[in-house]
Amino acid sequence: MTQDLSDSQSRSPSDLFPEALLEHHGKRVFAPMARWKSKKQIPPVLLITGQAGIGKKSMSRYLAEWILCETPPPGPIPKACKLCHSCLSFASGNHTAFTEVAPEDDTESLKIDQFRELKATVGFGTYHHHARVILIPQVERMTPQAANSMLKLLEETPPGWQFLLTTHDSTLLLPTLVSRCQMIRLKPLPTLEIQQLLHKIGVAPARATVCAELSQGSWDRALRFADDDIWEKRSEVLKFIETPHLHCSPLIDWATQKISHFETLVDLLEQITAELLAWSSSTPLVPPEEFPWKCASTHPTLTSLAHHYQKKPARLESARHFWFQQAERLGQSRHEIHLPLNRKILAQDLLFPWIGAPT
Ligand SMILES: [Zn+2]
């Protein structure tokens, strides 16, 4: 497989959003949508939440296309006709009534200026059927100034305007913003479903199994792990855990290159620390070879590491404390990666402590 599966931006929404994903998320989205539509009142600000990479943006785009469609087919499932003028404009990426607000630079934050332009159009222009859909993915990336500047518009949405916001963590948003939203929560995908989907798009069965296990219910994450470059790096991270001082520098360089690399590193370390914490917290301590390690691909490394600590009970407690600290640090770094911070320093901050881990 040579395809760059992580390059999801260049694919069309329908490629990104396979039927099975639509069916899975549809269970939570379509019933309220149909109910609101029958009352002719879709809440003007919808906040779609759920863990990172499970398809919140794709679901929002699907809904946007349907809301703007001129002749949506009748039926219980909201669906765009794909044939009308609106659907064709949507597919070409040039729909005048659809706006997606994305970061303009690599700091990944949504700044106040980006919303000034949007607000300037209130009351101007005749939009398609007077409807307008504004998608703000990962709305937690809004700077506080930008979020504050949008509160009034979200409180008093112009007629026909529909806001679709997404976030992986609504606690990162201003409470005053959340209070203006109707929330819909999407659930992670079952591992087996992800495995079958990966298999369908041509990922080899053994790789599909591991990627599905590592995905933690996220389709984006599963695609990322299936990518050749990242697949190769998986073993480097395991080597790093075994002998951190030997593998630290190349891993830092790699994680610094791209956000997707950094996120992969965090995903893998999080999975490893979570497994080690679960094992070390078992009472009485389960022999490593009998422990139900969740991910088959990291099983041998973790078993051998756990054996090492099992032989040194005095060190186990400090190791457990270390893993706990690292788990907390990893959680923080998910937020920090989107701040204007030096990525190399962040990667060093995550990896250097492992060199001094209790042995
Ligand atoms: Zn249509």
Tally of individual domains: 2
Main β-sheet: number of strands, strand sense, barrel status? 5 strands, parallel
Decide which structural class fits the backbone: alpha/beta
- The CATH architecture of the largest domain is 3-Layer(aba) Sandwich
Brief synopsis:
The chain has two domains: 8-185, 3-Layer(aba) Sandwich (Rossmann fold); 227-355. Helix content is 55%, strand content 7%. The protein is built from 16 helices and five strands.
List the helices and strands and how they pair.
Elements: H1 13-16, H2 19-38, E1 45-49, H3 56-68, H4 85-92, E2 98-100, H5 112-120, E3 132-136, H6 144-155, E4 161-167, H7 175-178, E5 182-185, H8 191-200, H9 205-214, H10 219-226, H11 228-242, H12 244-257, H13 259-280, H14 299-310, H15 313-336, H16 343-355
Parallel strand pairs: 1-4, 1-5, 2-3, 3-4
Helix pairs in contact: 5-6, 8-9, 9-10, 11-12, 12-13, 12-16, 13-15
This protein binds zinc ion (ZN).
Account of the protein in words:
Helix content is 55%, strand content 7%. With 359 residues, the chain is an alpha/beta fold. The protein has two domains: 8-185, Rossmann fold; 227-355. The model is unreliable at 1-14 (pLDDT under 50). It binds zinc ion (ZN). The site of zinc ion has 9 residues, from helix 4.
